[in-house]
Design a protein that fits this description.
mainly alpha; elongated
Length: 67
């Protein structure tokens, strides 16, 4: 149980950082395309980490496939 709460806290922290990077990429799009692309790339890498944590924090009952 303790590990799942740690995972959730880490997910929330990563999601806030992801939103900040996406907003930064959007704001830089018109003025500095290279920096915008870098921010977007970092955000995509962060989203991949978030998705992996989502996989780890699944509930055991949701892992079964429906017939």
């Amino acid at each position: 149980m303790e590990n799942s709460s740690k995972i959730k806290k880490h997910q929330i922290k990563l999601q806030k950082r992801y939103k900040r990077l996406i907003e930064q990429a959007y704001n830089l799009r018109q003025t500095d395309c290279a920096m915008s692309d870098i921010s977007e790339f970092k955000a995509i890498k962060l989203l991949n980490k978030i998705n992996r944590l989502n996989y780890l924090s699944r509930e055991p009952g949701k892992q079964r496939l429906a017939p």
